[in-house]
Amino acid sequence: MVNEVPIDSPAADYRSLLESERADLLDKLKEIGSGPEGGLSYDSNFADSSQVTAEKGEVETLAAELRDALEGVEDALRKLSAGTYGRCEGCHEPIDPLRLEAKPAARFCMSCASRR
Ligand SMILES: [Zn+2]
Prior knowledge:
Blueprint: H1 14-31, H2 50-82, H3 97-102, H4 110-115
This protein binds zinc ion.
């Protein structure tokens, strides 16, 4: 009975992996001038230039990608708290821990991901 490890204890510390990924994404969003809720902090005085409009489009695409990734990370954190983390959303089988360590916010197992 000494040093008994609960069977459902995760092998890797996914929470800290996810939290550092979240901090990283928030940093990047801040860098490009966008908050996690969207809305870019552009000076409205520059809004008429077509070049700025094009750049703004690129930044918005990047911001959308970052927000998507952030959403996935937060979703994974919610699942950790709910105790449903690490299950594939497609087939409901456990996701390979190696895959989770490489990509903690993964929502699908390898075979479901490759079918998408
Ligand atoms: Zn699956």
